[in-house]
Design brief:
There is one protein chain. The chain is α+β, with helices and mostly antiparallel strands and about 375 residues long. The protein has two domains: about 220 residues, Class II aldolase/adducin N-terminal domain (L-fuculose-1-phosphate Aldolase); about 130 residues, no CATH class. About 35% of the residues lie in helices and about 15% in strands. The protein has a seven-stranded mixed beta sheet with strand order 3-2-1-4-7-6-5, sandwiched between helices. It has a two-stranded antiparallel sheet with strand order 8-11. Helix 6 packs across helix 9. The chain is globular and about 65 Å long. About 35% of the residues are buried.
Amino acid sequence: MRSRWNDAEASQLHGLDLLVYASRLVGAETALVIWGGGNTSIKTRERDHRGREIPVLRVKGSGSDLKSVQRKDFPGVRMDDITALLDRSEMGDEEMVSYLAHALQEPGGVRPSIETLLHGFLEAPAIVHTHADAVVSLTNNDRAHDVVQGVYGKDVIALAYRRPGFKISRDVADAIAERPDAKALLLERHGTITWGATVREAYEGTIELITRAEDAIAERKKGRRVFGGARVSVLEPAARRQTALAVAPRLRGALSRSRRVLVGFDDSPDVTEFVSSADACARLADRAGDSGSHDLRQAASVLRRRDRRRGAGSLVPDRSSARSRASSPATHATSRITASKALSCSIRCRGSCSCRVSACSPPGKIGARPGS
């Protein structure tokens, strides 16, 4: 993974502005976070309501997206209130959210991330947390600890999965305290945590961590058939786009019966390799997301263009059993247009269109136009 850091752009930025800059770099990498996922933070000093200079954690707020985040999306949480919780052994989510609301520098402002304490319990001045695809590829298996150790050695700590909240924040802080020389921490089936004395150090640490994972995966793939090998041949780019323009309006109409959506078309090499493979429809597309963030932000079911014997052109949610889904054949259009929630058509309903091929006509109407 290539670092996007630009000294010319960053040199004039400081404090929270520099964190905003780095956060947008993270958000620009879809292999690091999906919409709304991940969070970043810095520890700084500010004046409180009585004019006293106090330590403050500025952490990404809930509901904001890293690639377009702004200063206002980083609520300030008083560090004295955070460190006071280190004596606690347990704390429920509702109590934690209420407690943090009372610790805000701007009362009634943006709600801080559910993972605020994970950032606050660590001493590092800057922290980056992502849900990187390459890392969950290493940890989403029954021997994650051994795999991580084989890739990173003693440089990286691996922790078993635990849902976000107070307990995982304590676990992370305790693990790093026991391994002060570690460079990063991986949460199995979740993501990465990197830190540094500066924002750049935390960001570059993330890029290095992911690059090592990508290199290990590439080495492992050599000489092996991925996803069971090809099931159908991939169309030429022009033919793929023509098919997308024909299918997208009808797909969007089917999806928009309960709420309006935008449909994005992705025919990048990684996507076409997957959706044209033997294992895509047979056993992989219907599986759960790579992490809790993927399940939260992406669709819970797969849409397929069904076999022509069941009605040409019908586009319906596949709610049949896993066995029937595995045996039901799909047309070539399926392989190039309607892949799984995490792999092909990016369905967005965020109020703006960022897809390359959009079906922006009213629900159920025909007539696609190029993406805006």
